[in-house]
Amino acid sequence: MSEFIPIPVVIAAAEFHLIQNVIAAILLLLAAWGLVRVFRHPFWGVRIRGVFRMGSAVVALAVICAYLLVAWTDAVSWKSPAGEVESQYSFQAGQPRSLFDRLFSAITGVPEYAYKEDSYSAPLAAVEFVDKDRPLKFRHLLGTTQTGHDSLYSTLKGCKPAVVIGTLPLLFAIPLALLFGVAAGFFGGRTDDLVVYLYSTIASIPGILFLFALIAAFGKGLPQIAFGLGVTGWIGLCRLVRAETLKLRELEYIQAATCLGVSRARIIFRHILPNLMHIVIITAVLAFSGLVLAESVLSYIGIGLDHSWGAMIDNARGEISREPPIWWNLVYASIALFGLVLSMNIVGDAIRDALDPRVSTAE
């Protein structure tokens, strides 16, 4: 009989990029399954399809899909076979390379880690920015960074940290806010007092200090930052859900369902939660934008994620004061950040209007 190996030991022995590939595949399947279920639903499908009648929302949705596509291809990675690349890049070749890296290499004709210069180069320049007598090895559409890496490649690589840091804390914060907010508003009494005391206590802790303490204890990384932002990010939504639930439970049809003996669980899932979805959607979209911007601020003060737009802005803050100024890295990171946040706000506003029962009833 073979010896039993605990599951945590097996997971720890597996390479991280393989686990990341599995998570990316699961998320893609869940997203596809969820979209199919929503569009086929007789109630939600009609309202979600109404979003596609808004021209600005369609454009914004296409922009978001482009961001998500780049982020997903950057999340799927595998190692290249031995002997596939040149020997001087053996270390980089031995590391897992994402699908995005390989697509970028196929377009440029060289591996992404070799598509670089010795220093800065301006967009579409033929010579180095510092030494005008030294020709460049490649033509870079958006120029290069201080380390000589392609600015377009660095900007696109920032999609993955932005999408992950904007989504992962919400997966923790939204269920927590709905659980405590609905319980406090619907049941009231001591349950309400306990929930109010809990989120008031957490709200009194400065978020930035909590993040500093978390990073000091466990080190800088995506799990620590996502957990810290999630723990401090559910309170605002919880307050809104509690207030709306307090109002909804007093409406006539909720009172009638209670008098008819309908169970509390059925009332919550059939009447309370559907009328909260427009609040959850718009709050989640605004929170996504806030989380992406928060990561940029954290990177600016040195505790954010590597290869993010915030890190690019942090690295470029001293470049703009040079003479002549090196402006392109700061501009491209800012435009990428602005495009994602603006598109999310437009789509969130359109979905809010489509799901809000008062708006759909008026129409």
CATH superfamily of one domain: MetI-like
Order of helices and strands: HHHHEHEHHHHHHHHHHHHH
Overall pLDDT level: 79
Q: Major sheet: order of its strands?
A: 1-2
Largest sheet: 2 strands, antiparallel
Amino-to-carboxy terminus distance: 68 Å
How helix-rich are the residues, as a percent range?
55-70%
Q: Approximately how much beta-strand content do the residues carry?
A: under 5%
Question: Radius of gyration, Cα only, in angstroms?
Answer: 24 Å
* Proper CATH architecture of one domain: Orthogonal Bundle
Number of strands: 2
Low-confidence stretches: 1-14
**Secondary structural class:** mainly alpha
Query: The CATH topology of one domain, please?
Result: MetI-like fold
The CATH class name of one domain reads Mainly Alpha
Give the number of helices.
18
Provide a quick synopsis of the model:
This protein is mainly alpha-helical and 363 residues long. It has a domain at 159-362: Orthogonal Bundle (MetI-like fold), CATH 1.10.3720.10.
